[in-house]
């Protein structure tokens, strides 16, 4: 009882972090296109449109838009069974609310899917991955129910266009991160209040549920999942107050999976909204939409675990653009960016979700950002990345073999180097493939295989049995 024979090994990217070509072939601006570069000490800025003299990483990124055939060939060389990618919504509907789609954008993804099919690679497509069309801001973005209809039009368009080419879909990337990063997740100002965040979440739940129904109607073979930003925390101590504070923090996150996997708002969230005076913009028929539009599987990212306790409430608010809980886990090592390394936490989260929902799971992001350099011999030695991934694959293996978790696949993040969403850097690299681009967008854009490339190729070839 190891990984199933049809296990979907692969890798993951997002359009706004790899495609570039931000205004090519009729594409409109997205929220990502007005986020400047930054680093771990200097936050990215959101500007009022594209300002002259500012550097925007999404505008060029790694130019995957023009290199996708080369990149997919490298994925195939590793033996990918699956490639998780996103469609850039504003490439299909430039303003978000257009009546007709942009044919050049649709044709581009036709080419991408045809290239994947040539190598037998299954696409797993995220419909909205931190790239809300900037045009939706004119009516309040996701705080307005109009956004639901815009998204549904977009979803129906691509479901119809790519019928038979794409069978696996995700609606919103890391939807729970709306509680911490409103701009990236929903095109809301980062100081958006609790009512605005609540309205946006409600409308995204409705949009996702309607998309699930439409996907099944267009092609019964379609499988639509949700995507959770893999926040998981431990109580700081066995002090009941620390345990209660941890439960409260995690309820902010798990309520997203509860709604999308169970089809209704959990009682703890409804009580919280009563206490805080938040009301839901409910219309007749909404409850049935949520119930019928439950997802087919739950996917999530996992990079690290957190620690929460009594002082967390003063540190982590509903609209904080960070996950600083006020605690550091003394038992874990950290990456160069200060992210705790906790493979056991992945097994814990897999069990928690499978016990909670009893639907198939998929780990669609996992990895470690490092400073990778090309050696004098032209080689890129990234043994630390190999060690990190090995331990997390072992944790998944235990969840499958020992705990009986139904795990569909594994697509580690940034299988090819791309722009970091959190910092806007290129030097924070995750990939098996090195791309010669720096933090200012300069470089040859040459692709190079890292040591982890051959290692992951062996992992896939042996279905996770050979991890040495």
UniProtKB/TrEMBL annotation:
The secretion signal range is none
Q: Which PROSITE patterns match?
A: GLYCOSYL_HYDROL_F1_2 (PS00653)
The scientific name of the source species is Collinsella tanakaei YIT 12063
Q: Which Pfam families match?
A: Glyco_hydro_1
- Of which family is this protein a member? Belongs to the glycosyl hydrolase 1 family.
InterPro entries recorded:
GH, GH_1_N_CS, Glyco_hydro_1
Spell out the molecular function terms from Gene Ontology.
beta-glucosidase activity
Name assigned to this protein: 6-phospho-beta-glucosidase
Report the record's Gene Ontology biological process terms: carbohydrate catabolic process
Q: Does the keyword Hydrolase apply?
A: yes
Keywords, comma-separated and alphabetical:
Glycosidase, Hydrolase
GO CC annotation: what is one?
Answer: cytosol
Instruction: Locate the transmembrane regions by residue number.
Output: none
């Amino acid at each position: 009882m190891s990984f199933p024979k049809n296990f979907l090994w692969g890798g993951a990217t997002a359009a706004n972090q790899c495609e570039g070509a931000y205004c090519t072939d009729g594409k409109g601006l997205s929220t990502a296109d007005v986020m400047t570069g930054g680093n771990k000490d200097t936050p990215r800025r959101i500007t009022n449109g594209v300002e002259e003299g500012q550097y925007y990483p999404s505008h060029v990124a790694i130019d995957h838009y023009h290199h996708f055939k080369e990149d997919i060939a490298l994925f195939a060389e590793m033996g990918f069974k699956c490639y998780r990618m996103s469609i850039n919504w504003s490439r299909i509907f430039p303003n978000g609310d257009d009546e007709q789609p942009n044919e050049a954008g649709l044709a581009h993804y036709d080419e991408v899917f045809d290239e994947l099919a040539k190598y037998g690679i299954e696409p797993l497509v995220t419909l909205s991955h931190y790239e809300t069309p900037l045009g939706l801001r004119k009516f309040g973005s996701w705080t307005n129910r109009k956004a639901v209809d815009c998204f549904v039009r977009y979803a129906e368009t691509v479901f119809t266009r790519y019928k038979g080419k794409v069978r696996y879909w995700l609606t919103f990337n890391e939807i729970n991160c709306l509680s911490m990063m409103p701009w990236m997740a929903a095109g809301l100002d980062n100081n958006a209040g609790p009512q605005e965040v609540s309205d946006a979440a409600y409308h995204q739940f409705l949009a996702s549920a309607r998309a699930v129904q439409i996907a099944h109607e267009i092609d019964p073979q379609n499988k639509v999942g949700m995507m959770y930003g893999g926040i998981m925390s431990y109580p700081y101590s066995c002090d009941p107050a620390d345990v209660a504070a941890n439960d409260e923090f995690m309820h902010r996150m798990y309520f997203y999976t509860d709604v999308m996997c169970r089809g209704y708002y959990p009682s703890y969230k409804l009580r919280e909204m009563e206490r805080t005076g938040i009301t839901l913009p409910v219309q007749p028929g909404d409850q049935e939409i949520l119930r019928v539009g439950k997802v087919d599987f739950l996917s999530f990212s996992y990079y690290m675990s957190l620690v929460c306790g009594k002082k967390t409430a003063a540190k982590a608010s509903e609209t904080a653009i960070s996950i600083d809980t006020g605690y550091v886990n003394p038992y874990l090592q950290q990456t160069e960016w200060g992210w705790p390394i906790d493979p056991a936490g992945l097994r814990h989260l897999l069990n928690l979700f499978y016990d909670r929902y009893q639907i198939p799971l998929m780990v669609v992001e996992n990895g470690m950002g490092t400073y990778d350099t090309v050696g004098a011999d032209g080689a890129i030695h990234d043994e630390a990345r190999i060690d990190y991934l090995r331990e997390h694959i072992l944790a998944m293996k235990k969840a499958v073999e020992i705990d009986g978790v139904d795990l569909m696949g594994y697509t580690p993040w940034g299988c090819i180097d791309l722009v970091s969403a959190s910092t806007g850097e290129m030097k924070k690299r995750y990939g098996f493939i090195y791309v010669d681009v720096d933090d200012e967008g300069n470089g040859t854009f040459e692709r190079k295989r890292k040591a982890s490339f051959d290692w992951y190729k062996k992992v896939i070839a042996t279905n996770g049995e050979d991890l040495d």
